[in-house]
């Protein structure tokens, strides 16, 4: 399929709306495109399938309790995976403790041909790069059957007795995948899929949909009186993992032309760090300044501190559990008039009640910035060098921040809703 696009900052005046799809189609020039991207399907590609096995048990227990336990296992069969067939094998690697593969500038390598037909630096990330046949990328969708997930959940409940009912449960699950399919083949292969080594051979790692842990408890009390009304009070507690993410570089650490998807190496100590001087808003931070701040950040992060001497794994950073309490108070009034039942209800819902009492309760923690190392480049010895991320001009020393911002995380602030309802027959 051939396609193109128009890039303009004044679409309203230059390209006003027109229902005809041919209105702004440029006239054919008769020539071939200077560059193009290929998106192809492997000849043996099969539509994805899922193998699912589950087992569960429900059992009556003493004291009027009912217990449930469920286990589910999923395995993807013929799941999609993407490669860039136009990316050659890495031609070198970094030296030092972080010895990841590297697509480096090498003298004598032909220059990349841009869309305009001009040369733009040595080309080490394209196999096909002839003038008039410049393939920017050749994405191939293939099959793999390594994605898997499992989930175990349990619950205890007690039916209504003297107006009380109670239910509680837990859930724990793990989901692992090779890639995180995005909206396009390019992003599914590149920016949406953090990697350490070869982007055409991604490792099995935590999916962004890996659920983590969850515990909940719900209690209800209902009081009925004189056959004309009832009051119900409900409390719901929920504690769950607040998502997962990855620690990556800001920039292109391995030189494969994809920025922001290279997982960091976690140094054992400051001797394995290789910072370069950094100037922010007129203030200069030395390599020693950044190493001290990075050491403080590592010690403050349970994931980083427990994986020193290793590469960070995609999706392996699970954010702290967020705890919330919701309240509900419902007043029902009902009465028969002329043989017809009329009911009125006043209901007050308070979501995240703890946050109403204290702004520090019921809020989640999110990363200050997942791209904690920036500007990755090789030094004179071929070692990977970088800078530490900053926030408001200061070096970051703490990985987490509260996310109780209405526009970004409405679940982290309390919400009150008062409703009225009238029904009749």
Summarize the model shown:
The chain has 425 residues and is mainly beta.
Task: Describe it.
By secondary structure, this protein is mainly beta. The chain has one domain. 8% of the residues lie in helices and 46% in strands. Strands 2, 3, 11, 12, 13, 14, 15, 23, 24 and 31 form a ten-stranded antiparallel beta sheet that branches. Strands 1, 4, 9 and 10 form a four-stranded mixed beta sheet that branches. The longest helix is centred in the last third of the chain and has 14 residues, at 287-300. It is globular.
Task: Name the descriptors.
single chain, mainly beta, 5 helices, 425 residues, globular, 4-stranded mixed β-sheet
Q: Considering DSSP H and I runs of 4 or more, what fraction of the residues is helical?
A: under 10%
Largest sheet: 10 strands, antiparallel
Low-confidence stretches: 404-408
Report, as a whole number of angstroms, the end-to-end distance: 61 Å
| Gyration radius over CA | 29 Å
List strands and helices in order, with pairings.
Blueprint (H helix, E strand, L loop, with lengths): L10 H4 L20 E7 L7 E13 L3 E13 L1 E6 L7 E2 L7 E2 L8 E3 L5 E4 L6 E2 L2 E12 L3 E14 L2 E14 L7 H5 L15 E2 L5 E14 L3 E13 L2 E2 L3 E2 L14 E2 L11 E3 L2 E3 L1 H14 L1 H5 L3 E2 L5 E2 L2 E17 L2 E12 L1 H5 L7 E3 L5 E6 L5 E5 L1 E2 L2 E2 L4 E3 L12 E10 L1
Parallel strand pairs: 1-10, 17-26
Antiparallel strand pairs: 2-3, 3-11, 4-10, 5-6, 7-8, 9-10, 11-12, 12-13, 12-14, 14-15, 15-23, 16-22, 18-21, 19-20, 23-24, 24-31, 25-30, 26-27, 28-29
